[in-house]
Amino acid sequence: MEVLNYIFDDQMPEEDTESVSDADVEAVESVDDESNAEAEEQPAPVETDDEPEEVPIVERPTTSHQAQQLQQQHQPLTEEVVNLSTPSPPKKRKRLSPAASHETGTPVAKAPSNDDDEDDGMTCPICLESWEMSGDHRLVSLKCGHLFGESCIRRWLTESQRQSAVKVCPQCKTKAANRDIRCLYAKRLRAIDRTEEHGMRRDLEAERRRSQSLTTELATVKMALSMTANKLNALQLDYDRLRQVVRSGGGGRGAFADDIDSGGSLKQLNQLASHRLYMEKNFEITREPGCRVLLYSAAHSTLIASQKSAQNLFPGYGVRFIDPPSFKPLHFLHTSAQLVRDIGFSESQHLLTVASREARLKTFDIRTRLCSSVFSANDKQVWSCALDRNEREHFLYAGDLRGGVYVFDVRFPETILSEFQADDNFSPVINIASVPAGKVFSNGGFLVCQLSVVKFYEYANDTAVATRLNVDGPFLSMQYDAVQDTVLFSSRSNAQYPQSRFILGQLDKIDGVPVFKVKTTIFGSPATPFMTRPTQLGVEDNTLVVGYLQDNKQLMMYDVRREERIQTMPVNEVIYDICPVNTSTGTYLAALTDNKCRIYKVNSSRN
After folding, report:
1. Is the separation of the CB atoms in 37 and 87 below 8 Å?
2. Which among 107, 202, 437, 582 could bridge 444 via Cys, Cβ 3.0 to 4.6 Å?
3. Residue 513, Cβ neighbours under 10 Å: how many?
4. pLDDT at residue number 77
């Protein structure tokens, strides 16, 4: 008789299997005969069609007392011997578990999975990705109660407003806004914990900023070294010239003066024209105080000054148009309900943009004096604005209260082309100026002046790369002159510099890193309680810097070539902004006070 050994738990060693004797086998067979006889007396189980027919499982047979004694003798071996020639006793049907079915190879119908139901409510319904516990895709909800990933719902609301002009929930179509987004802290949430990854990303960004700062510092040191080397060479030339004069036995004042005049440096300074300011006109713009910004457009021959509205029916602020030849106030344009903070011109597009500390930016057509577009800066107050020129004449720049910069296209006001948020400095953006493409910067860029830092964004493959410039603040204003390619900063007094400063210089590049090359620094008053704006005026081959000294209440004019203050004029009112005006009749300076405009004529004379 063939005997098949079934091993139920562990594999039995070969020597233990061979130790089973024939007597033991006969004893097991006799026990099986008895159990089979008892089974014949019992009725056969009834098969029904309700249950699917399954393959019976061979289980450990129930034996008599002798079989139990035999199992106790061989208990360590964990092996049983079954005679397959005798029919197995009827057993109660038992449904197989998935694990047993896999071991025996018997197919078992798989219960329907609830993974889809579990995943429903655990993933973002927009991108179908799992929520995160932190980061941009963290779990948020709208006021209607639907859950989304934060980055997805913000993008959805932006697209919804762009397509249908209304922000709605993607599931229930209820009106929603960015302020309705609230972060949730769920007790049971299937989310990917990327806290460590986000921490590593922050560390990486910090290292990148540190590397960029060190690169900028290195470029600044190289620039300072170059300037020091130039000064050293100039001193060496002067020393050689003086040594030659002493050796020749001269040393006379006239001989030395003649030698210097033959060199040309002082001779050129003596040939420069002298400039003086004369009061031409002083007229009232409005009776209400609130004038702050002054801007002149040569292409439109228009001078614009911000002011408070004098009409009770239209309270707020706007701009007053002034005719440059006669300097007479013309019509008034209402722009906003808040104080006007900055104004920008687009000469090619005939557009005027106004920033007034509101959560939106407006552009007006100069020809019709009507509002053409409204731009939103993510519900943040806009402090500054500027319009680009040349190949980027459709670009509009806006700076907010928290140091963020936004780039718009005036043809698509509902879309933000680029957004640059502050990383380490969150002071307001007080001025923005576009820099056209030139020899130093082939693609151009734009300057961003905050209260404490200045950054230059250089365009590279339609992407602006920010670099912090080597200029110390805190700042009051920034003015860029595209004709002279110079930048004028106004800095308030602080612990390091006890006097206010007017810093004039140019943008340059050292080892591919943008730097600011200082030409001259003019020191002003020690007290700077007001935010005032100086100006630079290019005359022939010279540059004049005109600013207001707050402690002395004086208007100061500085000659850059001569490196000296050439004129001061008393002013009994605070001058908030100064703007050069070039007309067919001559060159003027317009100075804006709280409610008046002063016009100064610039006269030139040669010695």
Report:
1. no
2. 437
3. 19
4. 41
DSSP 3-state assignment of 303? strand
Q: Is the peptide bond before 474 cis (omega within 30 degrees of 0)?
A: yes
Alpha-carbon gap, residue 56 to 323, rounded angstroms:
105
Q: Map residue 208 onto helix, strand or coil.
A: helix
The three-class DSSP label of residue 236 is helix
C-alpha 16/C-alpha 19 separation (Å) is: 5
d(CA 318, CA 285): 12
Residue whose entry in the numeric block shows the structure tokens 């590593």: 200
Q: How many CA atoms lie within 13 A of 489 on its CB side?
A: 31
- For residue 456, the one-letter residue type is F
Nearest to 284 by CA among 602, 603, 593, 604: 593
Residue 356, Cβ density class (10 Å: 0-12 exposed, 13-18 middle, ≥19 buried): buried
For residue 599, the surrounding DSSP H or E stretch is strand 596-605
pLDDT for residue 105: 45
pTM for the full predicted model: 0.61
Contact 562, 519 (CB under 8 A): no
Q: How many Cβ atoms are within 10 Å of 45's Cβ, its own excluded?
A: 10
- How large a percentage of the chain has pLDDT more than 70? 74
The number of helices, as runs of H, and strands, as runs of E, in the chain is: 9, 35
Ranges 162-166, 500-504, 530-534: which has the least confidence: 162-166
| Bridge partners of residue 334, in order along the sequence | 318
Helix axes 65-73, 22-41, angle to 10 degrees: 150
Pick from 353, 358, 352: which is nearest to 337 by CA? Answer: 358
Minimum mean pLDDT among 13-22, 135-144, 385-394: which range? 13-22
Measured distance CA(302)–CA(325) in Å, rounded:
10
pLDDT in tens, 71-92: 555 554 444 444 444 454 554 4
Measured distance CA(272)–CA(78) in Å, rounded: 115
Q: What is the pLDDT of residue 192?
A: 66
**Beta strand 191-192 pairing with 131-132:** parallel
Span 307-315, mean pLDDT?
A: 88
Q: What confidence score (pLDDT) does residue 212 get?
A: 82
Let me know if 151 is exposed, middle or buried by CB neighbors in 10 A (0-12, 13-18, 19+).
Answer: middle
Q: For 149-186, how does the pLDDT look when each residue is reduced to its tens digit (9 = 90+)?
A: 889 999 999 988 888 888 899 989 888 888 889 888 76
Q: How far is CA 312 from CA 151, 368, 463, in A?
A: 44, 23, 46
